[in-house]
Amino acid sequence: MFGNGLAFIARHGKFGLIIGLVAGLALPNLAIILRPWIPEMVALLLFLTAFRIGPREAMGNLGDLRNTAVTALCLQLGLPLAFLFGLWAFGAPFTPLAMAIVLMLAAPSVTGSANFSILLGHEPAPALRLLILGTAILPLTCVPVMYLLPELGGLQATLLAAGRLLVVILIAAALGFALRHFGFPKLSDDARSAVDGLTVIALAVIVIALMSAIRPAFARDPAELAFWLVAAFAINFGAQIVAYVLLKAKGHTDAVPISIVSGNRNFALFFVALSPEITEPLLIFLGCYQFPMYLTPTLLRRLYDPR
Fold it and tell me: Is the pTM above the cut of 0.70?
């Protein structure tokens, strides 16, 4: 009975994510209670994802890892540097919105990217590889961006935050891979559906905690909140759509998971290195960013699966 319930949740996963968004808005006190547990919830999500995929599928072959490295460098280094060059070339001011875009482009994948691939019916392993490898190389890829933007604060704080996240990812993924390899080498379809149901629940709970700044922002300045909400959708969905169009034109087999990662990044990593003057508007953006992220399986389904 319990397994059937989880399978039902997995089949209707996109609605579970929407319920999480609504709960984040309607239950601000619960969001505040859950916020300190975000690291543990993220680790649980990574554990479930690694267990569901398995070590063999996640690692792939040497060619997969090489392609993943190139993709991660393009996403986390090439794109933010290109954006900064564009600002410099056109003489555009470095506004809080520009700061948000740079941080998003320089960050690795969010932990839920592989789960979004699953909900859209596509292979999650490329997204998981990008998450692990992208986080591992962040201490290298963020250096040029931090050097060009002294406003970002201390490089050491960012490197420490990236290192802590990498440790969490590696431990959670290793535990998930170990349990799958030694305990459940062949996962049945029913078991896979049950794990998918658990990940939907985990994602829905995590988003409640991440939206703790939305209700106070709405009470303080609804117009500012609307601006950041529109910006979040434009940046997130814009990056996904552009990446998907380009990758499909080249016949890339992993176009969907890579496109999902291109728009869904863990830019909150950089917040530890920013001054309070910079982070105040960006905290609102972080909350707004959850809407396009969690609505990706619903609103972009027609793009990723046009049948």
Answer: yes
